[in-house]
Every structure is written in C-alpha cells, then in structure tokens.
Write a structure and sequence with these properties.
Layout lengths: L6 H6 L19 E5 L2 E4 L4 E4 L2 H4 L8 H13 L11 H13 L4 E7 L2 H18 L7 E5 L8 H4 L20 E3 L5 H14 L3 E6 L3 E2 L5 E2 L2 H13 L3 E5 L23 E4 L11 E6 H5 L20 H16 L2 H16 L8 E7 L2 E6 L5 H10 L2 E2 L6 E4 L7 H21 L1
Parallel strand pairs: 3-15, 5-6, 5-7, 7-10, 10-11
Antiparallel strand pairs: 1-2, 2-3, 4-12, 8-9, 11-12, 13-14, 14-16
Helix pairs in contact: 3-10, 4-10, 7-8, 11-13
C-alpha cells in the first residue's frame, strides 16, 4: 500500500460504520496518524490546523504533556474498577473539585461516559425528584427551538424536530413541550404562560445556555438565560442546563451560566471535561435535588449505573485538565480568540450567500443561505490545510484555546477564501 492509502485504512473502511454519514455516497475519509498541539497529521504527510477541537473537546490542544503523564501514571496503578461498592481517589477528588468550581450548591456529581447519557441521567433525576416527593404527574420537559441534547431516545425527544437530525424517529419519542427562546416581550409572555399553565405536568426546563450547539450555533444573551431561570423559579420548575458544549471556558466564563448569575438545579458536563482525551461526563445536582433521594427507602435511590462510570483513567485526565485551567491562562486565551474572531470573520458579512456572523467566546459561526454543498465545502477546507467541518447551514470555528494568532488567522482566512469562492457561484 502507498503512504497515501495505508492498508489499515483501505481494509478497515470495508467494515466501519461512520456517524452521520450515508455510507453509499460517502466521500473519502482522511486517515489520521498523529496529533500534536492544534495539528492533525494525515497518512499522506499533510497537516491540518484543527478549527473545531475534535467536536469541541480538545480545549488544551492535543497531547498536552501534563494530561498525558497523568493518564500514564494512572494506567500503571488503576485503569478501572467498578464504581458500585468501590470508589477511588481520582473520581472522588474530581467530584470535590467540580463542586468547588461550579456556582452555588451544585455539589453532588454523578459520572457517566458521554454527554447524551449525562442528559439522560439529568432527566431521570428530575422526574424521580418529583416522584420521591409523592408527585407523579410531573414527567414532561420543556425544551427550545434549535436545541440539541444528544442522540439517545430520551434526548432526541428534546431536540428541534425540524432543525435537528432525528425527524425519522418522531413517532417513537415521548411527547415533550417545545418553546421558542424568549428573546422579546411577546415570546417572554408566551413562555411564562406555558410554564404557569402546565407546571403541574413539567418536571424541568432544559436549555443550552448562551449558545445552542448542534442545532445551528444559535446565540442568546445572559438576560434571556436569567429570565428563563427566574420563570422556572417562580413556577416551581426545575432548571437543567446542558453545558456539555459551553462548559469549561468555551463562552468566556468557566461555565456559561456564570455570566447570567444563574445556578441551575442540575447541570450536565462532558466534552472538554477531560481535555479531549478520554470519554467522561458528569451530571451535577444541587443540594435540594440530592436530598429528595436521601431516604431509608431503597426505592428512592437513583437507579442508574454505567459499567464504566467514573473510569479512573478518564478521571485522572479530567483532574489534569482542571490543573491546566488553574495554571495556564485559558480564559485569557479565550478572550483573545474572541477578539480575533470578531475582527477576522467580520469580512464574511458582505459576501453573497452569508446570512449572519456570530461570535461568543472561542466560538465563531458564519450562517449561510441558499443551496449548500457540505461535502464540497469540507473538501475545500482540507485542501486549504484546515480541519473545519460545516454542518447544516453553518461554517463554524471552536478552536483549541491554546491556538496562536497565526494559526487562528489561517483558519479564518480559509473560511473567507472558501466562502468567497462560493459567493461567486451562488
């Protein structure tokens, strides 16, 4: 086999099933042989500057020596042990550190392996919170247009049925309540009316704070988040914040909810939790939520337990990632990225076929109009030496926080160049 088509790539593609991909028409995938910093190295010798942090996880870049040494040390002593009847230091230390970092009394941490499952656990917590109080009717959730909370069955029911990827399964989902984000007075009145009318049926409201991710990188301000939280409190409805994408500095604060001074009843974390190295997620509840499960009645316990819950290797990586937030200037780096993205992406606003440009923290989004050939865009970006993977009608950047201004300029210049070419065609 040639260097550009290694045997493992050719042979393995005959058996693999890729995510979000029609395999019958899939174009060639890019075989990766190594990563370093903000770069992805391909088998043919090319390097791509990563503009999306491997689905928003690699906040410290790839192969950070501190995370690597921590996981290597953990591997030598305790890679994994079941987390029922047994506990270990990496998980307990991580839980203590997360509780100290999070606002308010978000202090009880339940570990899982993926963001979708962390949301599933939050939903289960919310419903059982009311059941443990003797209230059986509060088993529905309010979610928002353009929202995305995962690909499992319960989480798919919370995603936008029109904008999302899950319309095929609509007949299988439990019915939930879809609301518009209350960004103006009429929508605020409608949202408050929805909660006041149906609060005896609603277990919780769930929201991605400040930035809705896979539903189109839609952004709202802190005042909107604060209004939603206040309405939930007035109506006695739990608030779940899905910070799987926004958590750990991506929007400019350690957690997006801090910008609005909001403490949710339950928060979901994943993605950047381990710095993009190992699968891990956390569902963290406030004290009053946990106390509803504190009982001599075994039936009041939270009945959930993933096999790889609180995996010791992943927890070691997460502790090392938190070390880096303490010792390296991550939030300052995010502020610098935000300023550069605002300046560099502004030139896209005047291009034909560009509907909007949005920036928040280390997130930049260019929304497109007209017909969009995603595969053609993805190929052109790779030809430009960058890894940018548009979806739906959005070209976006969520680079590692450690990216330098020169590499970030390469990313933004590639976006302008490729969209300029597209503007000539549309």
């Amino acid at each position: 086999m040639s260097q550009t088509n290694p045997a493992w790539h050719h042979d393995g593609m005959q058996n693999i099933w890729l995510p979000y991909t029609q395999m019958a028409t899939a174009t060639a995938t890019l075989p990766v042989v190594s990563t370093d910093g903000v770069r992805i190295r391909l088998a043919d010798g090319r390097e791509l500057i990563d503009g999306i942090s491997s689905w928003w996880t690699a906040c410290h870049g790839y192969n950070h020596p501190h995370i690597r040494s921590a996981t290597e040390a953990q591997l030598k002593t305790l890679p994994h042990v079941m987390f029922a009847g047994l506990v270990h230091e990496p998980a307990l230390r991580l839980a203590t550190r997360l509780a100290a970092l999070l606002p308010g009394d978000l202090e009880r941490v339940f570990f899982t392996e993926s963001g979708s499952v962390s949301v599933e656990v939050a939903l289960k917590m919310a419903v059982q919170y009311w059941l443990n109080k003797g209230i059986t009717e509060r088993n529905r959730f309010v979610c928002f247009r353009h929202g995305y909370h995962g690909d499992t069955f319960a989480t798919m029911a919370l995603c936008d049925p029109d904008e999302g990827m899950h319309s095929l399964f609509g007949s299988v989902f439990p019915p939930q309540m879809m609301a518009e984000l209350p960004t103006d007075e009429a929508l605020k009145i409608g949202f408050e009316r929805m909660l006041s009318t149906h609060r005896e049926r609603i277990a919780a409201v769930i929201l991605e704070p400040l930035v809705q991710g896979a539903g189109g990188i839609k952004m709202h301000d802190a005042a909107t988040l604060k209004f939603i939280a206040d309405v939930c409190q007035r109506n006695g409805v739990l608030l779940i914040l899905d910070e799987i994408m926004t958590g750990f500095g991506r929007t400019g604060k350690m957690f997006a909810c801090e910008e609005a001074g909001v403490v949710p009843d339950i928060i979901c974390l994943s993605k950047a939790l381990t710095g993009g190295t190992l699968p891990l997620a956390a569902t963290v509840a406030r004290r009053h939520v946990f106390e509803a499960f504190w009982s001599q009645d075994k039936g009041a316990a939270l009945m959930h337990g993933p096999t790889y819950m609180a995996n010791a290797l992943a927890c070691a990586a997460a502790n090392a990632s938190l070390d880096l937030f303490e010792t390296e200037p991550r939030l300052q780096q995010v502020a610098a990225i935000e300023a550069q993205l605002r300046d560099a992406l502004a030139v896209c606003k005047g291009l034909r076929g560009v509907a909007d440009v949005r920036v928040k923290g280390a997130i930049g989004a260019v929304e497109l109009s007209g017909e969009i050939d995603l595969e053609q865009l993805r190929q052109r970006f790779a030809e430009c030496g960058v890894w940018i993977r548009p979806f739906s009608n959005v070209v976006y950047l969520m680079p590692p926080f450690v990216i330098g201004p020169e590499d970030l300029s390469v990313l933004t210049s590639a976006i302008h160049q490729v969209l300029l070419e597209r503007s000539i065609r549309v």
